[in-house]
Specification:
- By secondary structure, the chain is α+β, with helices and mostly antiparallel strands.
- It is built from 4 helices and 9 strands, in the order ααβββββααββββ.
- Strands 1, 2, 3, 4 and 5 form a 5-stranded antiparallel sheet that branches. Strands 6-7-8-9 form a 4-stranded antiparallel sheet.
- A hairpin with a 4-residue loop joins β8 and β9 (202-213).
- The chain is globular.
- It starts with 7 loop residues before the first helix and ends in a 5-residue tail after the last strand.
């Protein structure tokens, strides 16, 4: 009686194929586990940011009788909104309604710039450059200072959420923040981990897509 036996090399090839499949499965599992591990962010030490703290905890280089922080709009720079002020307003609006330059504040394709009106015993001064504002703040030595520098550079925050918080570092501050990086096809907002040093320099340590809509415009 004749038996149908598989050739030995066919059995060997099947065994090799099985082993390869097992190795692929193991490799996929390992990669997936590594990705999941990378996605886990350590927020230890980060404190939630309150909306109030962005402006009212500034530590200034000098004392001012009054100052106000303005957003002017590139489309019509005669229009502005006062986003924060401290002291008693010493002027009427018509006095300072002329266009003023300022620190360019780009949020995606939207265009705003910031300037600061200060008032002391010598009169009124507009701070219109980044260097002037750094001098206005002095060293970036408080959380409020660091948050304001982030704001000037187009970053914003999810308030009262430690995943978008601030943490003091040995030579500056670490901040998780959002930024609109594109306002039209796509509308995209990214999440950043930035470091701001005592001189106001910003270093991007991490960046990832937070939301994206390829078919939308603002």
């Amino acid at each position: 009686m004749q038996r149908n036996l598989r050739p030995t090399n066919n059995i060997y090839q099947e065994n090799v194929k099985i082993m390869k499949n097992k190795l692929i499965v193991i490799l996929v599992i390992a990669i997936f586990a590594a990705c999941k591990k990378d996605e886990k962010i350590n927020y230890e030490g980060f404190e939630p940011i309150s909306e109030k703290s962005v402006f009212d905890s500034l530590q200034l280089q000098n004392d001012y009788i009054y100052y106000e922080i303005r957003n002017n709009y590139c489309s019509d720079s005669t229009k502005y909104s006062i986003i924060f002020s401290k002291g008693t307003k010493p002027y009427i609006d018509s006095v300072f309604s002329n266009p003023n330059k300022g620190v360019f504040y780009s949020n995606g394709d939207l265009c705003i710039y910031n300037n600061i009106l200060t008032y002391n015993s010598t009169g009124y001064v507009f701070l219109e450059t980044y260097t002037q504002i750094i001098n206005f703040l002095g060293s970036i030595d408080s959380k409020g200072d660091a948050l304001f520098i982030a704001h000037l550079n187009g970053y914003y925050f999810k308030y009262n959420d430690k995943e978008f918080g601030i943490k003091e570092d040995k030579d500056g501050y670490l901040i998780y923040a959002c930024k609109l990086v594109s306002a039209c096809t796509p509308v995209q907002t990214d999440k950043f981990l930035i470091k701001i040093d005592i001189h106001g320099n910003i270093e991007i340590l991490e960046q990832s897509v937070l939301s994206k809509d390829d078919n939308a415009c603002i």
